[in-house]
Design a protein that fits this description.
Largest sheet of chain A: 10 strands, mixed
Strand content of chain B: 35-45%
Oligomer: heterodimer
Distance between the termini of chain B: 24 Å
Shape of chain A: globular
Distance between the termini of chain A: 10 Å
């Protein structure tokens, strides 16, 4: 695609609710200005927004930051599945000539009961601002006390264990390898070592998922700036090209975890299989050419299922794949979540993964994968669309 | 009225039916489990919706079930995500397949049984939880 990522920025990351008295608008503005400065651009260069659900209205951002003219503003539907795809949407707008400099961002502030972790609890259940409103479809889920994404994904995880012999030790390997990557990073919220004993001693939340299978709950913002390849060559940072992007999924994956009637063939999956096929087809490369993978890690088993769906191992083999040390940095065949992910660095609904992939391909990452040329970034397994992005060093 | 053990609090059971889901809940209040089946192609679907996903026809008939199910997958919730759930812990949320209705699945609690005894593939049967006047929620328990 004729598009390159040229700037990344973030606010400080906080544990849930601790960003006060800063406002959500302040967090996102800080991230956007940081990303533009990183690129050597200013707000006067921005003419587009490409987003995914739950951030902050770009109209408010534009008026606040003084962006002169907006020529493109669009959002992927769904939820956290759109993280990587929002940058793909920016690339699409640029390749179509609809905008020159497009900002993608996520910001969240989970003070009080505004918790994504309770996003299906409804107002009666105390779900707060991020809670989905009551719906006729929700009547078939909420009365059973299935109120948060972790509870829902634990049902997929249990099915995966049943079908393929996946064990909690495999989930632990995702948690521990990701924690190891967070330890040397100043930006990470969780920097103390995590052992297998710690993992098994932790409280069970939604069996089979324990505390360390869950991502963090955070406040903060991340912004990413995308422009054309031509313009990228003259900017401050070594450009990172958008090799391919895809978003979507099987129609009958649908609302997935709040529906649970997905086809049996891919129930215990990340929902990414069709998107992976589309992505590799567009890029003209396969999983063997990916040097580093930043896979959306809201819950550890979903990292395993993405390893399968993106072809790094056969379906059902992800437990053994991680057991063999393949996702460890720096020794594994495919270092995963080199920044510490949603699990141990910060949960900004997947946008930290894009930032890390860009730093890896610039060669400036804290946990630098040697000679990284191609990075995969995915959005969260969730309702469709789920999305992903292949980035390549240089233009 | 006596409620099943292991069922969540009534506060979260408020319903907001529409014209397509209401017959399910009317039958439920009478302790009848019904599932819509397409009158054109015979495909079952859940939750009730205005179109058949297989043939896009709208006509449905409500097929009453014996209430037999199979546990497709499940979780045992041991930590409350919101305060209202604390007194219900631990509770089991299962995805229950209905073999007599083309394998459609319901999300439902497993009640009146030991959470640690649940297994995928276990046969279950419906039990009714009268949460309010005229409102009953289907739960399941071990069959036999």
């Amino acid at each position: 695609m004729n598009a390159a990522v040229v700037g990344v920025g973030s606010s400080q990351y906080f544990k849930r609710g601790q960003s006060l008295p800063q406002t959500n608008l302040e967090l996102v503005g800080t991230a956007i200005l940081g990303a533009l400065d990183d690129a050597g651009l200013s707000v006067r260069d921005v003419d587009g927004f490409a987003l995914y659900s739950f951030g902050l209205d770009p109209a408010l951002v534009a008026q606040t930051l003084g962006i002169p003219e907006v020529r493109f503003s669009a959002m992927l539907t769904g939820g956290g599945g759109g993280a990587a795809g929002s940058v793909g949407l920016a690339a699409t707008a640029i390749a179509a000539g609809m905008a020159d400099v497009v900002v993608s961002y996520m910001t969240l502030q989970q003070a009080g009961l505004r918790r994504f972790g309770a996003s299906f609890a409804g107002s009666a259940g105390g779900g707060g601002q991020y809670s989905a409103p009551p719906s006729p479809e929700g009547d078939f889920v909420r009365p059973s006390g299935l109120l948060g994404p972790g509870q829902m994904f634990s049902i997929l995880a249990r099915r995966h264990m049943h079908l393929y012999g996946t064990r909690r030790e495999h989930f632990a390997e995702v948690a521990i390898s990701t924690r190891n990557n967070a330890i040397p990073r100043d930006t990470a919220l969780m920097r103390s070592p995590l052992t297998l004993d710690d993992y098994f001693d932790a409280r069970m939340i939604s069996d089979p998922l324990c505390l360390y299978d869950y991502c963090l709950e955070c406040d903060g913002a991340v912004a990413v700036v995308t422009t054309s390849v031509e313009r990228a060559r003259d900017l401050r940072q070594p450009p990172v090209s958008v090799l391919a992007t895809a978003n979507g999924g099987n129609g009958r994956w649908g609302q997935a975890i709040t529906w649970m009637n997905m086809d049996d063939e891919y129930f215990a999956s990340s929902g990414h299989r069709p998107v992976a096929k589309q992505l590799y087809g567009m890029a003209g490369i396969g999983p063997g050419e990916v040097d580093v993978a930043e896979l959306y890690d809201h819950f550890t088993p979903m990292v395993l299922m993405q390893l399968e769906d993106y072809g790094f191992c056969p379906i059902g083999e992800s437990g053994r794949f991680v057991e063999d040390g393949n996702i460890r940095f720096p020794t594994g065949s495919l270092p995963v979540n080199t920044h510490g992910g949603n699990l141990s660095e910060a949960y900004i609904i997947g946008m930290t993964h894009v930032k890390e992939a860009v730093e890896q391909l610039r060669g400036t990452a804290v946990n630098q994968v040697r000679d990284a040329q191609v990075a995969l970034v995915t959005g969260g397994p969730a309702s469709i669309p789920v999305s992903s992005l292949l980035l390549r060093r240089g233009t | 009225m006596t409620r099943p053990s292991g069922a969540p609090p009534v506060e979260i059971a408020a319903l907001t039916p529409d014209s397509w889901t209401e017959p399910f809940w009317v039958a439920a209040a009478e302790h009848r489990l019904v599932v819509p089946r397409c009158t054109s192609c015979g495909t079952y679907r859940m939750p009730p919706s205005p179109f058949c996903y297989a043939c896009q026809a709208q006509g449905i008939e409500w097929v009453e079930q014996r209430g037999a199910g199979v546990v497709y997958s499940y979780t045992v919730i041991r930590h409350a995500v919101v305060p209202v759930m604390r007194d219900a812990l631990p509770y089991v949320v299962a995805v229950v397949e209905l073999p007599d209705a083309g394998g459609v699945r319901l999300v439902a609690n497993l009640v009146d049984m030991d959470p640690d005894a649940v297994e995928i593939g276990m046969a279950v049967r419906v039990v009714w939880d009268d949460v309010d006047a005229g409102v009953a929620i289907p739960r399941f328990t071990k069959a036999g």
